[in-house]
Amino acid sequence: MATARMGDTITISYIGTLDDGTIFHSTEAAGPLTVTLGGGELFPALEKAIVGMRQTETRNISVSADEAYGARLKENIIRVARGSFPAEKEIKPGQKLGIEFSGGAARVMLVTEVSEEAVTLDGNHPLAGCNLTFALRLDLIQ
Q1: What residues of the chain score a pLDDT lower than 50?
Q2: Which end of the chain is more exposed for a tag (fewer CB within 10 A), N or C?
Q3: Contact by Cβ (8 Å): 35, 10
Q4: H helices within 26-124, ranges in order?
Q5: Looking at the chain, which residues constitute the CATH 2.40.10.330 domain(s)?
Q6: What is the 8-class DSSP label of residue 3?
Q7: pTM metric for this prediction
Q8: How far apart (Å, rounded) are the C-alpha atoms in residues 56 and 46?
Q9: For 28-46, what is each residue's pLDDT tens digit?
Q10: What residues does 23 pair with on adjacent strands?
Q11: Under DSSP, is residue 18 helix (H, G, I), strand (E, B) or coil?
């Protein structure tokens, strides 16, 4: 039976969980995911673990935070004067805002704190600093 190799297009199903068992993503609702190994669509550590798997094989694959979204970085958290936003704009913790920086760069950031003086924004990926585990099945090798 064939095994997955770099360059193969594969279809996988998975449930992704955090160390505490929280599910962060699953293909159950949207259906299986089709990707090309080596195409930059998956974390390299996840691709490496899939290489050598046989069609229909299942595996629990752990990807460390450093091999996934990296560490949570303090420099990705900024405080912006509340006056930088329109007074009529409601801003509350948990809200995502598109922020434009000098030079034209834009980034979606999470509002983590709001006071009369300032808004604290976190630009880290929500899963930064988290180890990820994938209960993964290799459905198809093309």
Answers
A1: none
A2: N
A3: yes
A4: 44-50
A5: 74-122
A6: B
A7: 0.85
A8: 17
A9: 988 999 999 999 999 999 9
A10: 17
A11: coil
